[in-house]
Write a structure and sequence with these properties.
This protein is mainly α and about 90 residues long. It has one domain: Arc Repressor Mutant, subunit A. About 45% of the residues lie in helices and about 10% in strands. It contains four helices and two strands, in the order H-H-H-E-E-H. Helix 1 packs across helix 3.
Length: about 90
C-alpha cells in the first residue's frame, strides 16, 4: 500500500492522528500534500484544533475522517455548477 492509502486506512478505522504521528508512522515527508490529496479525492478530512489539557498545556491538533455538513456539500455542488456541464464528467 502507498503512504496515502495507509493514512486513509488509519482514518477509516477511526484513528485521529497528529501531523507528527502521520509523518513518523507512515514515513510521510509532506503531510499537508497527503491530506490535501485525500481531500481532493473527496474524503472529508478535518483538523481538530488542539485544546488545552487539564494542566493548561496545549494539546496537538489532530486530523480525522468525518462527515461533511450540508453546507460543505452544497458548496461543492455550487462549484461544479459554476464550471458548466463538462465539470460533472
Amino acid at each position: 500500500m502507498t503512504q496515502k492509502q495507509n493514512v486513509l486506512a488509519a482514518f477509516q478505522s477511526g484513528e485521529e492522528l497528529t501531523p507528527k504521528q502521520i509523518a513518523s508512522r507512515f514515513n510521510v515527508a509532506n503531510v499537508n500534500a497527503v491530506i490535501n490529496s485525500l481531500r481532493m479525492e473527496g474524503y472529508p478530512i478535518y483538523l481538530n484544533a488542539g485544546k488545552k489539557g487539564s494542566d493548561g498545556t496545549r494539546l496537538a491538533a489532530r486530523y480525522r475522517l468525518g462527515t461533511p455538513t450540508r453546507k460543505v456539500i452544497a458548496a461543492g455542488y455550487k462549484a461544479l455548477a459554476s464550471r458548466g456541464p463538462k465539470a460533472a464528467n
